Amino acid sequence: MGDLYALDFDGVLCDSCGESSLSAVKAAKVRWPSLFKTVDSALEDWIVDQMYTVRPVVETGYENLLLVRLLLEMRLSSIRKSSVEGLTVDEILENWMKIKPVIVEEWNENRDALIDLFGKVRDEWMDNDLSTWIGANRFYPGVADALKFASSKVYIVTTKQSRFAAALLRELAGVTIPPERIYGLGTGPKTKVLKQLQEMPEHQGLTLHFVEDRLATLKNVIKEPELNGWNLYLGDWGYNTPKEREEAAKIARIRILELSDFSKKLK
Q1: pLDDT tens digits, one per residue of 113-132
Q2: Domain ranges of the chain
Q3: pLDDT at position 76, please?
Q4: CATH of range 3-15+138-266; options 3.30.450.40, 3.10.20.30, 3.30.110.40, 3.40.50.1000
């Protein structure tokens, strides 16, 4: 009958860490001007560099802002007393789900306000200098061609705002995916989207595949008996850690996927 692929975007199709980190630094300067006033270009480069290491913990884009500030606080904690004193990058990778609510409360932040700010900063960057914004992203090797020539039905299921995913697919990969096939931020949890996709009459009889780079997301799918029909894959090129890949390899439902095999599968 054919195949349906539900694909995560960041970390599966697109390496957007450069752009999301730079956007987060821009947004952090707007949100916390006094704190970021002293950040020079060398410190900014250090933050962006560290963001590549902590990127596996990000589920939704606004968390990049929290991480950018957290990294700065960690750097400054030697100068002034801070609750993050002694915190390490490894501990962020290990305990982000516990750290996040603590800092959100301590900094008196609001998730929706940060989401709006992050989107606004990206929109302004795109409006003022689209080519630089696009250039801060890259599609993984072979992915653009795999999408162009895919014989399977392809859906994008992402926590990125849909307009950014669509712009990158169009401008950077040269691929147009109809808007109704892009489920972005605000369309509900990925488990809910997968249920919607499998229930559509036109998808009956198709073999279902879900490709993700976050182990936590795949584990959420496994918890839902209704989603037992999905083949689950963890992309080993995305934003995950060796420890997570090791854990995934022991879970019967999950297959570890290499980039070259992913491109072949879509074609």
Answers
A1: 999 999 999 999 999 999 99
A2: 3-15+138-266, 17-134
A3: 83
A4: 3.40.50.1000
What one-letter code names the amino acid at 224?
A: E
Task: State whether the Cα torsion 228-234-238-241 is positive or negative.
Answer: positive
pLDDT tens digits, one per residue of 86-104: 789 999 999 999 999 999 9
SS (H, E, C) the chain: CCEEEEECCECCCEECHHHHHHHHHHHHHHHCHHHHCCCCHHHHHHHHHHHHHHHHHCCCCCHHHHHHHHHHHHHHCCCCCCCCCCCCHHHHHHHHHHHHHHHHHHCCCCHHHHHHHHHHHHHHHHHHHHHHHHHCCEECCCHHHHHHCCCCEEEEECCCCHHHHHHHHHHCCCCCCCHHHEECCCCCCHHHHHHHHHHCHHHCCCEEEEEECCHHHHHHHHCCHHHCCEEEEEECCCCCCHHHHHHHHCCCCEEEECHHHHHHHHC
pTM of the model: 0.93
pLDDT per position as a tens digit, 9-21: 999 999 999 999 9
